[in-house]
From TrEMBL, chain A:
SUPFAM superfamilies: P-loop containing nucleoside triphosphate hydrolases (SSF52540)
Name of protein: Amino acid/amide ABC transporter ATP-binding protein 2 (HAAT family)
Pfam families in the cross-refs: ABC_tran
CDD domains given in the database record: ABC_TM1139_LivF_branched
GO biological process, one term: L-amino acid transport
Family: Belongs to the ABC transporter superfamily.
UniProtKB/TrEMBL annotation, chain B:
Cell compartments where the protein resides: Cell membrane
Organism: Humitalea rosea
Main location: membrane
PANTHER family, per database record: HIGH-AFFINITY BRANCHED-CHAIN AMINO ACID TRANSPORT SYSTEM PERMEASE, HIGH-AFFINITY BRANCHED-CHAIN AMINO ACID TRANSPORT SYSTEM PERMEASE PROTEIN LIVM
Transmembrane segments: 12-35, 42-62, 68-89, 101-119, 139-164, 195-216, 231-255, 267-283, 313-331, 343-365, 385-409, 421-445, 465-485, 515-539, 551-577, 589-608
InterPro entries noted in UniProt: ABC_transp_permease, LivM-like
Signal peptide (residue range): none
GO molecular function: branched-chain amino acid transmembrane transporter activity
Topological type in the membrane: Multi-pass membrane protein
UniProt name for this protein: Branched-chain amino acid transport system permease protein
Upper lineage: Bacteria, Pseudomonadati, Pseudomonadota, Alphaproteobacteria, Acetobacterales
GO CC aspect terms: plasma membrane
Keywords: Cell membrane, Membrane, Transmembrane, Transmembrane helix
From TrEMBL, chain C:
GO biological process: D-alanine transmembrane transport; L-alanine transport; L-isoleucine import across plasma membrane; L-valine import across plasma membrane
Source taxon at top rank: Bacteria
GO terms assigned for molecular function: ATP binding; ATP hydrolysis activity; L-isoleucine transmembrane transporter activity; L-phenylalanine transmembrane transporter activity; L-valine transmembrane transporter activity
Protein name (database record): Amino acid/amide ABC transporter ATP-binding protein 1 (HAAT family)
InterPro entries registered for this protein in UniProt: AAA+_ATPase, ABC_AA/LPS_Transport, ABC_transporter-like_ATP-bd, BCA_ABC_TP_C, P-loop_NTPase
Ligase is among the record's keywords: no
Keywords noted in UniProt: ATP-binding, Nucleotide-binding, Transport
Length: 245, 611, 280
């Protein structure tokens, strides 16, 4: 499929706009297979737009997204999903009126191999035992932490090679934050590559292999996670120390 | 009021449930479509008519038995539904939210006209395919057709439930309705879902049309509009996008109508439906079955203002056009002049609508009702009170301004689609009140022998006189409107349209300025209606119908929403051009529908640009 | 002297989420108070509660010695409260000048006689006839609007007749602030005035806000660029998860560990990373 040297996901010189506002300026980054890579940044730094660009929900004005060495240019979101990308959207975006089980099966929407889907359902429920007790409950009635777990489980049901997670810890209580991070690591250990966008830098870097820091559409900083964690510049990038006089 | 006996009550109840079932098959489709596409499909009733005629043709020409007839209807209407999605919805992805709604209005005009051209406007009788016995129950009776309709209604609901609950595509439909972005991220192809939903909804609508044809033993192309409206009323009662709610709303509507007829008579049926609609919009816009009483926040906003730089005509050119128009009677061609009069009268209506729909962004679908109010006011004052026409026409303008504003005032807090639905309903109510308030309006007979135009002894009844009078009034109204637009009112109106929340935060009260716009617009439209009444000498409650409202909207979109010169140009073009190709007279409404569709798709800013 | 704005115990819930939880603040005349906090902390919701766009579930707001809890925004505008919006809500199809003039709407006197019922009709008539007093008032407002636009140097003046949709994002934000100033507000609420601006533009905006403060205007500011907040604010309130987690002078707040934690995460940056396995 892909060259050994080729990254699983690569963004190449992306320039994107939101209305008249330029959000990304020549944004380039890559995600190696098997890793957890995080994209950090404060408010309005362009994190969520990066996610939308990868998933085909928003088209860049120039630049290319490569997945397994193939350009995704011109593909619709469902086509991109079928290539093997799963999504855990910002604010989870579950189907609140549908049951937990229906949400899980929606995750497997692109697949038609029923026995294998049933197998995966079992595997996912083993990973997220809380969901098993609630299979018939409406997703919208669960707590925020449980919803986040369902969103991750739903993404897994598509057997993706890569899962894109948009702020998976946002709005969760500290207890659940830790649980979610553990689960992300557990998913990664099963061989799924994770690309996550996070505001919460120390948490994300705590589990990631590699990190990028996005500042008003530019990559301000990048490096292996443990080096970034110790880098004092990351604090400036967030608190605006470097910006303004 | 006369109280029917107990047996009759039973019959009215059965009738209400049967009608409710028929409405349910319409409303469920509308709810599904609204769910996945956030669109109120105004072409829904047209598909219902297609269903009725396909059924009629199958039985009449092919002699099909009932199951085969239904199959034919399902297939043809399903395909029509797919076509509506491809034409009216998919190409408009990314344009303003009201655009697909307007597109379905255009499609409705086209479909209705095609049916009329193929099958003629005359009513047809649908051969009965069920036996004619009736079972007496508790003083009333119930027949096989009642049972059949009830059975098909139940069966459809069951099939739909199974589809939504147990099939993969059904899940995709529900997921898309709840969160289409998230559904796409699961790999759902939204286009495919929309297509499936339109096909299913249209098939149900078609079956509904067939059943109605059998129930009343009569079908005609004109029944589409009422079907759309009834479906929408049931949909609003149940809550937009709520499928089980739509069934409940339909039964409530059917029973309300049936009991209303029992108590007050047939001509009150629709009045009940539309009063129910307005009451729902005002007090429970989310439907009877929702806990919330406030409007849902976002998806209903958005006007149809394309960003453009308006084309400016220099003042000397405008003056030249006015002079040229004033000299038109010298051609001494009464036929051309009559077209001129019509263009000018429509021009006044378009001026009024372009202010309301363009400048203030309230897409009104009931504007013809203002003509009716003006026409009846002036006509009645001249006929029954014997006042001189020169006095009754301005009074008609003032009365229309006041009454029109008062009627729409409660709807000012609505936005987007709700405004369109509410104004449509209010327009129908005006027409029905005219029909039923015989003591004042002469009821169904209409106003005959309205005195001709004359001003202080000068007879303007001739076509030249009418023309010059209309020209003077139109020019004055247009200049006045331009003057208001250049004052603080113009920017306040447009601020409300562009962002009503920000406008309110700066003290620009939505109610006050919408009222001023409807008031000024109502004045012009009332005068137009009054002159029309005097020059026709006969009007009734159907003279100013909903098609006219849609035509006026097409005119102002053609000219460029909010654009004063554009409104006059749009009116002139749409009135004069079909006359220029006289061979096309039969296709007139069809052309309007196509023009509307093409504009929405390719030139939303119109010819002259939006202002 | 009593505070110009007194907010007491505001609560707002959306569904099960408490967006603002027991928020209180006082703002004295001439003061600049900043509210900072990460995304989703409830800052904008708090603004919406104060400016009448959403009714609070509990608590009260007093402005200019009047109870304005849950009042309509039109009244707050008349009392002298002006606000800008997080994502720059200009009137897209109006020219720059008209946008600013809408801001001056509450200052229209001659053309809007304060007579109940008849007032609107007179307003329509006066707008059409335009007697000298109306013309003079409009002219004065136009001059004032142009004067306000000069605050932004030559950023907006050359584009005064252009429709707002044709402006750059930064210019739209400037138009919004000009529109707010045209109200001649007693209290100005600024919601992230520099969002989406580059460094030069941010510095420029900082100067504008600084000048407004020096001219004596009372300002409530939501801002993310802490450098700007530190430089301009008299006091700072820090919000996280709907609640106030710190309040004080800019320098105190900056070194408050709770603040750094709110921004960077629940563990201190630089601490040892939790154990993890390397995949290579």
């Amino acid at each position: 499929m892909s060259d050994p040297g080729e990254a699983l996901l690569r963004l190449d010189n992306i320039n994107s706009f939101y209305g008249p506002v330029q959000v990304h300026f020549d944004l380039s980054l890559s995600v190696q297979a098997g890793q957890i890579v995080c994209l950090l940044g404060g408010n309005a730094s362009g994190k969520s737009t990066t996610m939308k660009t990868i998933l085909g929900l928003q088209r860049p004005r120039s630049g290319t997204v490569f997945f397994e060495g193939q350009p995704l240019t011109g593909l619709t979101t469902p086509q991109i999903i079928r290539r093997g990308i799963g999504s855990v959207p910002e604010a989870r975006r579950l189907f609140g009126q549908m049951t937990v089980r229906e949400n899980l099966l929606m995750g497997a929407y692109t697949r038609s191999d029923k026995p294998a889907i049933a197998q995966d359902e079992e595997r996912v429920l083993t990973l997220f035992p809380r969901l098993r007790e609630r299979l018939k409950q409406r997703a919208g009635t669960m707590s925020g932490g449980e919803q986040q777990m369902l969103a991750m489980a739903r993404a897994l049901m598509g057997r993706p090679k890569l899962i894109c997670m948009d702020e998976p810890t946002m709005g969760l209580s500290p207890l659940f934050v830790d649980r979610v991070l553990e689960l992300i690591q557990a998913i990664n250990k099963e061989g799924v590559t994770i690309f996550m966008v996070e505001q919460n830098a120390s948490l994300a870097l705590g589990i990631a292999h590699y990190g990028y820091v996005l500042q008003t559409g530019h990559i301000a900083l990048e490096g292996p996670a443990d080096e970034l964690l110790r880098d004092p510049r990351i604090r400036d990038a967030y608190l605006g120390g470097a910006a303004a006089a | 009021m006369n109280m029917p006996g107990l047996g009759a009550w039973f019959d009215y109840t059965v009738n209400g449930i049967v009608i409710g079932n028929i409405y349910a098959m319409l409303a469920v489709g509308l709810a599904l479509i609204y769910g996945v596409a956030n669109l109120v499909n105004f072409a829904h009733g047209s598909v219902y008519v297609v269903g009725a005629y396909v059924g009629w043709a199958a039985i009449t020409y092919l002699g099909t038995p009932l199951p085969v007839t239904i199959l034919c209807v399902v297939v043809v209407c399903g395909l029509v539904g797919v076509g509506i999605e491809r034409l009216g919805l998919r190409p408009l992805h990314g344009s303003s939210r009201i655009a697909p709604l307007l597109a379905t209005i255009g499609i409705a005009l086209v479909l209705d006209q095609v049916v009329q051209l193929i099958f003629s406007p005359d009513p047809r009788a649908v051969p009965m395919q069920v036996p004619e016995w009736r079972i007496p129950i508790g003083g009333g009776t119930i027949g096989p057709l009642d049972l059949l309709i009830g059975g098909i209604g139940l069966a459809s609901a069951a099939v739909l439930y199974g589809f939504l609950r147990f099939t993969k595509l059904g899940w995709a439909v529900r997921a898309t309705a709840q969160d289409s972005d998230a559904a796409q991220q699961m790999g759902v192809d939204i286009n495919k879902v929309n297509m499936a939903v339109f096909a299913i909804a249209s098939a149900l609508s078609g079956i509904s049309g067939l059943l109605v044809g059998m129930y009343y033993n009569q079908i005609n192309p004109a029944m589409s509009f009422e079907a759309t409206l009834k479906g929408i009323v049931a949909l609003i009662i149940g809550g937009l996008g709520n499928v089980p709610g739509a069934i409940g709303g339909s039964l409530i509507l059917g029973l309300t109508e049936s009991y209303g007829i029992a108590l007050f008579g047939t001509s009150y049926r629709n009045l009940f439906a539309f009063v129910l609609l307005i009451a729902m919009l005002l007090w429970r816009p989310n439907g009877l079955f929702s806990g919330r009483s406030s409007l849902p926040p976002e998806p209903m906003t958005g006007t149809f203002i394309a960003r453009s730089r308006p084309f400016r005509i220099p003042p000397w050119a405008v003056a030249g056009l006015i002079v040229a128009a004033a000299l038109l009677p010298l051609l001494n061609n009464p036929y051309v002049l009559q077209i001129g009069v019509n263009s000018l009268l429509y021009g006044m209506l378009a001026l009024s609508l372009t202010l309301v729909a363009g400048t203030v962004g309230q897409i009104s679908l009931g504007h013809a009702a203002l003509l009716a109010i003006g026409g009846y006011t002036s006509g009645l004052l001249a006929m029954d009170a014997g006042w001189p026409v020169a006095v009754t026409i301005p009074i008609a303008g003032i009365v229309t301004a006041g009454l029109g504003t008062l009627l729409v005032f409660p709807a000012f807090r609505l936005t987007g689609h709700y405004v369109s639905i509410a104004t449509l309903g209010i327009g129908e109510i005006v027409s029905l009140v005219i029909l039923n308030w015989s003591g004042l309006t002469h009821g169904a007979i209409g106003l005959g022998g309205i005195p001709p135009l004359e001003v202080f002894g000068y007879d303007l009844g001739s076509v030249e006189g009418t023309y010059w009078l209309c020209l003077v009034i139109l020019v004055l109204l247009a200049l006045l409107q331009l003057r208001l637009l250049s004052s603080h009112l113009g920017r306040s109106w447009r601020a409300i349209r562009d962002d009503s929340v920000a406008a309110r935060s700066y003290g620009v009260s939505g109610n006050r300025y919408k009222a001023l716009a409807f008031g000024f617009g109502g004045f012009g439209a009332g005068i137009s209606g009054a002159i029309t009444a005097h020059s026709y000498s006969y009007i009734n409650h159907e003279t100013f119908n909903a098609t006219l409202s849609v035509l006026a909207l097409t005119m102002v979109i053609l000219g460029g929403l909010g654009n004063v010169m554009g409104a006059v140009l749009g009116a002139t073009l749409l009135i004069a051009l079909p006359e220029a190709f006289r061979g096309l007279a039969e296709y007139r409404i069809l052309i309007y529908g196509l023009v509307l569709l093409l504009l929405i798709r390719f030139r939303p800013q119109g010819l002259m640009g939006t202002v | 002297m009593a505070a110009m704005l007194e907010v007491r115990g505001l609560v707002k819930r959306f569904g099960g989420v408490t967006a603002v939880n027991d928020a209180s603040l006082d703002l004295r005349e001439g003061e600049l108070l900043s509210i900072i906090g990460p995304n989703g902390a409830g800052k904008t919701t708090l603004f919406n509660l104060i400016s009448g766009l959403e009714p609070p579930d509990a608590g009260s707001v007093r402005f200019m010695d009047q109870d304005v809890t849950g009042t309509e925004p039109e009244r707050l505008a008349r009392l002298g409260m002006a606000r800008t919006f997080q994502h720059g809500r200009v009137f897209a199809n109006l020219s720059v000048l008209d946008n600013v003039l809408v801001g001056a709407h509450t200052r229209l006197r001659a053309v809007r006689p304060a007579i109940p019922l008849l007032g609107p009709l007179l307003e329509l008539g006066l707008a059409a006839i335009r007697p000298a007093a109306v013309r003079a008032e409009e002219e004065a407002l136009r001059e004032d609007a142009k004067r306000i636009l000069t605050l932004f140097g030559d950023r907006l003046l050359p584009r005064i007749d252009n429709p707002a949709f044709s402006l750059s994002y930064a210019n739209r934000r400037r138009v919004e602030i000009a529109r707010a100033l045209a109200l001649h507000p007693k209290l100005l609420l600024l919601d992230e005035p520099t969002a989406g601006m580059n460094q030069t533009e941010t510095v420029e905006m900082q100067e504008v806000v600084h000048d407004l403060k020096r001219s004596g205007l009372t300002i409530l500011l939501i801002e993310h660029k802490l450098e700007m907040v530190m430089r301009l604010s008299d006091r700072v309130i820090v919000m996280d998860n709907g609640s106030r987690i710190a309040e004080g002078l800019p320098q105190e707040v900056r070194s408050d560990p709770a603040v750094i934690e709110a921004y960077l995460g629940h563990r201190e940056t630089g601490a040892a990373a939790p154990a993890r396995e390397d995949v290579s």
